[in-house]
Design a protein that fits this description.
The chain is α/β, with parallel strands linked by helices. It is built from 7 helices and 8 strands.
Length: about 200
Amino acid sequence: MTRPLIISDCDGVLLEFIAPFIAYLDSQHGLTLTLDSFALTGNVRRADGTAIDAMEFPPLLDGFFTTHMTTQQPVPGAVAALATLARDCDIVVLTNIADHHAVTRTSELARLGMPFRVIGNNGPKGAPIRALLDEFQPSTAVFIDDLPPHHSSAKKHVPQVHRLHMVAEPPLRHLIPAAPDADARIDDWDDALTHIQTILGAAK
């Protein structure tokens, strides 16, 4: 009998991103990040308050993952929740990160107590989720992500997957809009674990 499959995003779901990224921008580039709206591009500003150009943002993000990924820490409850789920489930981390960072991310997650397979992705996640279902043939599957468009993509490609919208970083919770194509919104890992276990139990 196949096992359930948990497919989780990383930044903002398993690992803190905002605080270490703000620290990186300040220490390495003398820039700030304002959280006035749900966007990174356009909210990174110079000391005089002017926003950087959109084309300047990708190199900053790449630089963060190259030099400061090791400053990211797990969000509260993530390590324990995944360890509990891993007893009975396969777990894959599906993260929109460049392929050349995926190896480092794998080792960092393992160092922090989350020794799971990492898949780098670019763009919507519905198709790679479908590929994972084809590979694992799970008894049931749960997808966890903080961004609403990924839930819409998952619903389009794999509507049978249970979609959990999680914004684990408090500074973003009032900025990220609702995900109408998610099945539930839970921002705390302790509550999410109970919810996921209920879903898995109902699928038996």
